[in-house]
Amino acid sequence: MTVPLTNTAPSPAHDSSGEISSASDGGVGLVQTQYRTLFAPPHPLVLECGQQIGPITVAYETYGELSPERDNALFVCHALTGDAHLAGRHSADDRKPGWWDKFVGPGRGLDPTKYFIICANVLGGCQGTTGPISINPETGKPYGLALPVLTVGDMVTVHQELVRSLGIEKLLAVIGGSLGGMQALEWVAKFPDAMHAVICLAAAANLSAQGIAFNAVGRRAIMVDPNFQDGDYYSADGPKKYGEEGPRYGLALARMIAHITYLSEVSIERKFGRRLQNSDHLAYELQKETEFQIESYLHYQGKRFIERFDANSYLYLIRAMDYFDMAAKYGSLEQALGQTNARFLITSYNTDWLFPSSQSREIVAALVKTGRHVSYLELSSVFGHDSFLLEIEQLEELVIPFLSETLRQSRKH
Amino acid sequence: MTVPLTNTAPSPAHDSSGEISSASDGGVGLVQTQYRTLFAPPHPLVLECGQQIGPITVAYETYGELSPERDNALFVCHALTGDAHLAGRHSADDRKPGWWDKFVGPGRGLDPTKYFIICANVLGGCQGTTGPISINPETGKPYGLALPVLTVGDMVTVHQELVRSLGIEKLLAVIGGSLGGMQALEWVAKFPDAMHAVICLAAAANLSAQGIAFNAVGRRAIMVDPNFQDGDYYSADGPKKYGEEGPRYGLALARMIAHITYLSEVSIERKFGRRLQNSDHLAYELQKETEFQIESYLHYQGKRFIERFDANSYLYLIRAMDYFDMAAKYGSLEQALGQTNARFLITSYNTDWLFPSSQSREIVAALVKTGRHVSYLELSSVFGHDSFLLEIEQLEELVIPFLSETLRQSRKH
Q1: Domain architecture of chain B: domains with CATH
Q2: Other Cβ atoms closer than 10 A to A138
């Protein structure tokens, strides 16, 4: 098996040069998304629901170089609406870098001069990996809702196969926040020997009833949009650009609801409070949707989201979150997490009410009960659930030494 | 001015008899909604937005008898989707009693053998008081969105006029929770001499940014429903029964979102958790909206709501909540609340995240700073924002002596 060329040529030293410096931000510079086909006939993926799909295309990016011993690979699992584009830019005039760009780069939390970092779009996603917008080989048309229901376990199985296909026998660590943290937990439960460490941020071993409730409203908003058409909204000559067809209003609404749950009461109060958007006095217009700054902001978030996301894909991914329940699947949390020798770093955030600290403590308790090695911190931040994406320095202080020590220990054996 | 007959004939003793015993529940028995026309030409109500409306019909109910001194009147302000039907039943075969039935009755928190209790549907509502579904005298058709934007101040002005028209010079107390608590606060700010006491439960002196955010999503859900038609959805021969026309999906969605905010994380976890609705295993159906009990429950709540509420009315009332900001209106909370000699009883609930205790403490601080008489308690309950409706005994222990003492003091003067 061939070790693939990496997309980036990270500087050997921390001072940026070459492609990295071209971004002038100390990050990873220019990157390209790669694609790999897995589960091709006659070996389709048997999903946890019992149905099969294949072949599966996986979109992924890598940063840094795999060591000759192939022992320095990190896999980053993205959250609900993330994608393979973890860091860097796709072209020099790219407007925005990858979703966790500030955390990835020489000297940063995930350092491509030390590690070979992989990030892939999840199964069911809409940024290159097989999902409802992909062509169903049996019909020549997009799957739409003909794609079977997917689970976090299915996503992880696909990523594990990607890792294997890249010639990596054991990852140094799997890292993720939110749905990404759920994937990290599921990965170590399903493949206990697949990694030396797990870093799980702002996540949980199951989605809370409140989380299911918010997803239920988002799902409903999409499904009652007349343009949803039972998911069969792609035009006959192939899907259009996101935002140009399908349940735009419903998807934007779903995003608005979800976005509120990502913010904390404190951050929303500080950032917006009751400030008006364009005036110093009330408009007294019933239908005005941009009277308050927070309204404008939510509508803007909804609008931006539909330009980059597929509504069917959103339905698949939130359903996978709803279904995620490690104790139910493995008998108990102890059974799920007690089979591995991986080290765990777990963080929660004091203002995160979507994935509250109590849920991280359940994971920690199960790990301690089964004698696993776990470090847990409830971190302080005003940013609510989004903290894991925003509190970069706080996280680096933990992740950098945790990964170094994991690498040192793994090389001792 | 004539003191109207009361609807109920409460037993003089605590042991139920006559109409009260006919309900067999120790409550107020049979009641009838009454109607009064106010602000008739040439004296329309000048709204806070600057526009005028009139005449205004007010639907109200009363329980107990006004004392000869007219000094025992309590006014209960209902919350967002409440109405004038506070307690009792409209007929012997009425399926459900009024919305706070358990709190009203002989020996209960609000005792009709001692007090004359008034409850009225708010301006902009849809249960008998003038609102968007009422006939606009200028067109002969329902107002729809031709009704000007209404504020909590406007609601209170109408209620104050109703009280005056009933021959009551000064209320013993104004009582309300949530939007009802906002009305109570606004009432004492706008009419500082209109009552001897204010009881304000689970409320705030302004709606938080997070509250505006949830309202913005509910508003959007209604407005993008194709059946909303800019609020012009009433059939030509007059409005149909609720639930038979208009933005049903949008209104149900708005209710589902709001309903989540009324529950606490604890109560939703205890009541539903991750339990499935009809099965012991996952259905693996993407579009199934009743897989989890919490989903079924929310859909049921949405469905029930549209059968009893008008979507336009909902838009008016949530806008009034958005706009509510006493400090902005009166210069400061101290100026708003410092003009009265009324006594205050204020409660918040430890699991209420929609109107958190911090917002009640702001009110208390302003009252203390201006030398007012205020008692404040943060009460423990698992029920979140709904606690004020559900924790009856806890509330009675405070309200019964508070009202007795208020009556005693008011009669001393």
Answers
A1: 207-323 (1.10.1740.110)
A2: 9
